[in-house]
Specification:
The chain is mainly β. Helix content is 0%, strand content 43%. The chain has no helices and 22 strands. Strands 15, 16, 17, 18, 19, 20, 21 and 22 form an eight-stranded antiparallel β-sheet that branches. Strands 2, 4, 5, 7, 8 and 9 form a six-stranded mixed β-sheet that branches. The N and C termini lie far apart (51 Å).
Length: 333
Amino acid sequence: MRKERVGLILVVLVLFLWVGTGVSEGKSVLRASPSRVKPGETILLRFSGAPGNNTDWIAIYPVGEKSENYGEWYYLEGKTSGELNFTAPQKEGDYEFHLFANWPEGEYNAITISNAIRIGVSIGTSPTPYNDVFRLSTGELITGELLSFDGSTFKIKTETRVIERKKGDVVAILIGTKPLTPTKPFTPIRSLSQWATKVKASSQYSPSGWSAQQATGEPNTSECGDIDTAWAPKSNGSESEWLELAFDTPVYATKLRVHETYNAGFLYKVEFVDVYGRKHTVWQGKDTTACPGWFEINVDQTWYLVKSVILHTQIKGYEEIDAVELTGIPISK
């Protein structure tokens, strides 16, 4: 039996990821080479798809560093594509390049991050080349090296020739994902399935039982029923509600599963939220999930990185969600 209602305490845990300024469809690209260098040697950085502001800028960072902890940097002076030469820092370690838009308005919000490179005194002179991977709208995967992107056309160097593909034909790009090995075929990129770790909601029954937090983590409600280990909204009326769940690793999403454990069949819309905060409706319709049961949607791999999902619900009574799982391809450095 449902216990007496308590006052609503809305628990909001917000996932912060970089918000881009003036980025075009999330397809700005940075490509650093070689992948292994010694301190003081030259690093070639190719960039493309930059916003085109005079004060767009690129800086080198130790991997994992943000904000003001950057090294050598350059303004792009309105260029949307081109090449820059950087000098490898004297301190050994892994480094990457960050692209920022329109300083100072864009602040330190990186809109694109390059593949990682390793700097060390004991590194040999023959670097290991890495694949860039391009997924086309047809489902085809092209592996090679991105040479340039002028805003409309990708120029890609494969093992046999240089090819060009139009922007509209490329739905996802993964930079520097796998070593090129001439004796072995390309290994397919491994997908990642993960449970939600952070959440916010339109309402929740209480800050403990039936709270929004109950929808994070692995499933722990095995039966259909009014059970406090799942999320339930404040009201048992027929008003629409929503639940936004964030994940630790942004992915190019391919699948979503939602464990419904009471009054199943309440979903009417699902949105993916990319790393720039933009919402994408990926499903809208009639939910026919049994109770308990898994609502499941499979989508073509998104061209954008998904950081969270928004579940829109509506039913007379208490809808309850136990767990949410997102599957997709993480970007590799």
